[in-house]
Design goal:
single chain; alpha+beta; Nucleotide Exchange Factor Grpe, Chain A, domain 2; 6 strands
């Protein structure tokens, strides 16, 4: 075998080795990605199962809290019993906190359908529409989703006030339209008066007649468009003509 053939064979083997090495690396990367994906799905499924299980205990926590609230107005003996149940409730909440599940406050906030469930709608004008007045059951959430939406009482504007507001708006709109119409009518009347300024003259003479010296003397309305005030030069020329005639 010649040197050239040996060299070609070595180059071919090196190329095949490089291809096998790349395939090996790609396979390792795919296996690593699959392992991470499976680990993530496993973690999510476990977390989802825990959250679903805990959500079934939330009504029990609600009952605990309601019972302890009533116990505050009871006798000392009942309060001593309630103290032990308060410690149990604290331990349960610690377990929820360890799994990333916490309660959130709703009273005074705006209603959000992602976090709240409206159990009652109260019509009032003392609060902004959509405000939460009362919380019947606390809402709980994790880092990724809402475990249970809060059950709340939501405000709504009264229908009468809405209708009054709409009626007032319509009345203001009608008044503005009426004012604009009156203004347009006045403008059109002024235009007609200017165009027909000599139609109501009682005398047969009109200022439009050039030969008539007593122009517009019989016109009742001196503001007529035909009435031209004499200028100072015209008055001087008239005085000179009177002197000559004398």
């Amino acid at each position: 075998m010649s040197k050239k053939e040996k060299k070609d064979k070595i180059q071919k083997l090196d190329q095949e080795l490089s291809e096998f090495k790349n395939k090996y690396l790609l396979t390792l990367a795919e296996l690593e990605n699959a392992r991470k994906r499976m680990q993530k799905e496993k973690t999510e499924s476990i977390s989802f199962a825990i959250e679903n299980t805990i959500s079934e205990f939330l009504p029990l926590i609600d009952n605990f809290e309601n019972a302890l609230n009533f116990a505050n107005d009871s006798s000392e003996e009942v309060k001593n019993w309630a103290l032990g149940f308060q410690m149990i409730l604290s331990q349960i909440k610690d377990i929820l906190h360890n799994h990333g599940i916490v309660a959130y406050h709703s009273v005074g906030n705006k209603f959000d359908p992602h976090y709240h469930e409206a159990m009652e709608i109260f019509e009032t004008n003392d609060h902004e529409e959509g405000s939460i007045l009362q919380e019947f059951a606390k809402g709980y959430k994790s880092a990724t989703r809402v475990i249970r939406p809060a059950r709340v009482k939501v405000t709504k504007k009264t229908l009468e006030k809405k209708q009054d507001f709409e009626n007032d708006s319509q009345t203001e709109k009608n008044e503005s339209i009426k004012e604009e119409s009156i203004k347009e009518n006045k403008e059109s009347e002024n235009e007609l008066e200017n165009n027909n300024c000599c139609n109501n003259i009682e005398s047969e003479t009109c200022c439009n007649s050039i030969d008539n010296d007593e122009c517009c003397n019989d016109i009742k309305d001196k503001n007529c468009c035909c009435f031209e005030e004499e200028t100072e030069d015209q008055n001087i020329s008239k005085d000179e003509n009177i002197k000559i005639n004398k």
